[in-house]
């Protein structure tokens, strides 16, 4: 075979390998933390392969006695180990570079499950982290598949999480995520829930014309994942059960 042809084939296979998609059912999203002090420093998720990997969180005590967190995907084999270890080569330990792992934990039961591991400080009670995929302001633009949004942001204290589906005639729907004013959201959701309540089991004209566009808000950290309509349905079910705080839009435990 011609060397050049071989090279082209080699490169093609390399690219296929790099961009090979993990089947949706085997995707596990894990919070990426790189020397984070608290959860709000971790604003990205990694997409891991749940067949071979788990989410992990390490609490690392640095040589300067700071506590930082590192997290992401890790092989299932490495997760089975899990006893505290010293990082770095022996010679380095004798020298000055020395780090201790105070805690190392793994999980794979849920997307983003490692945000609860090793005691990493969560969001403050009145500050919320939300998925953030928006053409204008975020690192990540609006997405054409809800599961593609893997960027988070910390909203202002007067904001909650927000999601929006946008219908474009003749092309694919886009999904937008971010923060929205708490007061506006409270009014929006009161209207949304009352409409859904009126239309539950009704076939009146008003209920036939649910808009294809969708807006929804919710008050818990990271609650704005999924298709807007799914978020609405999820929170409506809680609202019906009296399990949603009408003021904060947070789930009542
Ligand atoms: C990952 O796989 C485990 C079984 O090994 C399963 O219990 C879990 O639900 C999966 N996680 C996700 C997010 O699909
Ligand atoms: C946020 O919470 C802290 C402590 O819980 C409180 O001191 C502060 O006033 C709150 N801020 C707002 C804007 O609610
Ligand atoms: C929220 O408001 C609705 C009426 O608008 C009420 O039926 C429901 O009990 C309220 N939920 C809570 C948790 O207070």
The number of helical segments is 6
Structural class: alpha+beta
Q: From the 3D structure, determine the CATH topology of the largest domain.
A: CD59
Q: What small molecules are bound in this structure?
A: 2-acetamido-2-deoxy-beta-D-glucopyranose
Nearest-angstrom radius of gyration? Answer: 22 Å
Residues in β-strands, percent? 25-35%
The helix/strand order is HEEEEHEHEEEEEHHEH
Domain count, please report it.
Answer: 2
Strand order of the largest sheet: 2-1-4-3-6-5
Q: Report, as a whole number of angstroms, the end-to-end distance.
A: 66 Å
The description of the largest β-sheet is: 6 strands, antiparallel
CATH C-level class of the largest domain is Mainly Beta
- Name the poorly predicted regions: 88-95
Task: Indicate the CATH architecture of the largest domain.
Answer: Ribbon
Keywords: Signal
Protein name: Sodefrin-like factor
Organism: Dreissena polymorpha
Your description of this structure?
This protein has 253 residues and is an alpha+beta fold. The protein has two domains: 25-116, CD59 (Ribbon); 129-201 and 209-240, CD59, CATH 2.10.60. The protein contains six helices and eleven strands. The radius of gyration is 22 Å and the shape is globular. The N and C termini lie far apart (66 Å).
List keywords for this structure.
253 residues, CD59, three-stranded antiparallel sheet, binds 2-acetamido-2-deoxy-beta-D-glucopyranose
Task: Please describe the topology of this protein.
Elements: H1 3-19, E1 27-36, E2 44-49, E3 53-61, E4 67-75, H2 76-80, E5 86-87, H3 90-94, E6 99-107, E7 129-131, E8 152-154, E9 159-168, E10 171-181, H4 182-199, H5 205-208, E11 214-218, H6 228-240
